[in-house]
TrEMBL record:
Name of the protein this chain belongs to: Alpha-ketoglutarate-dependent dioxygenase AlkB family protein
Keywords: Dioxygenase, Oxidoreductase
GO MF annotation: an example: dioxygenase activity
Pfam families the UniProt entry points to: 2OG-FeII_Oxy_2
UniProt-listed SUPFAM superfamilies: Clavaminate synthase-like (SSF51197)
Coiled coil: none
TM annotation in the entry: none
């Protein structure tokens, strides 16, 4: 894994954690086997559809973007991925949030994964399958730090840990470029 040059952060990236063949198979299995939901978000007093599909699996419920997520029980493909991510990162994960970006019009806004349930310095392991999307980091307070962008490749693993969530926000911007659908999984350890 290569370490990204971000101060006040510990971010590691492995572009080819899985081979393209394995990644194709995982994409298909997840696309078909996951119970994808279209959730909505309340913004400016309006109910808007989230700009992506989501699913939450694991041992514990979790509040995300103001929504309480009742977890679905682990399924074999997610257990298998969790095992490999645990092996590679040396961390335990009891939950996974999945995101399905149907097109370049789907996105995720600036945020950090700093909910109290995740503890002080959470380890978040993120797998990407399908179309490549840009992923950017922005420092919360340091104006001298330019945003940093990387491309999350098919079959890649990104690990964010230590003080990363405390100091940096991240997002997946929309793109006008034609892109294939993308599936992202973020493995987390929810306390309590
Ligand atoms: O799709 C991605 O790579 C980002 C996902 C993410 O930041 C999240 O689920 O909190
Ligand atoms: Mn996040």
């Amino acid at each position: 894994m290569q370490k990204l040059p971000l101060p006040n952060a510990e971010v590691y990236y492995a572009p080819r954690f899985f081979s393209p063949e394995e990644s194709n198979a995982y994409f298909r299995e997840l696309e078909q086997g996951i119970n994808w939901q279209q959730e909505s978000i309340r913004m400016f007093g309006k109910e808007l559809p989230m700009p992506r599909l989501t699913a939450w699996y694991g041992d514990k419920g979790y509040t995300y973007s103001g929504l309480y997520n009742e977890p679905k029980p682990w399924v074999p493909v997610l257990q298998k991925l969790r095992e490999q991510v645990k092996e590679a990162t040396g961390q335990e994960y009891n939950s996974v949030l999945l995101n399905f970006y149907r097109s370049g019009n789907d996105s995720m806004g600036w945020h950090s994964d700093d909910e109290a349930e995740l503890g002080k310095e959470p380890s978040i392991a993120s797998l990407s399958f399908g179309g490549e999307r840009r992923f950017s980091f922005k420092h919360r307070t340091r104006k001298d730090q330019k945003p940093v962008s990387i491309t999350l490749e098919h079959g890649s693993l990104l690990l964010m840990q230590g003080p990363t969530q405390h100091h940096w926000l991240h997002h997946i911007p929309k793109t006008k470029r034609p892109v294939q659908p993308r599936i992202n999984l973020t493995f987390r350890n929810v306390k309590g």
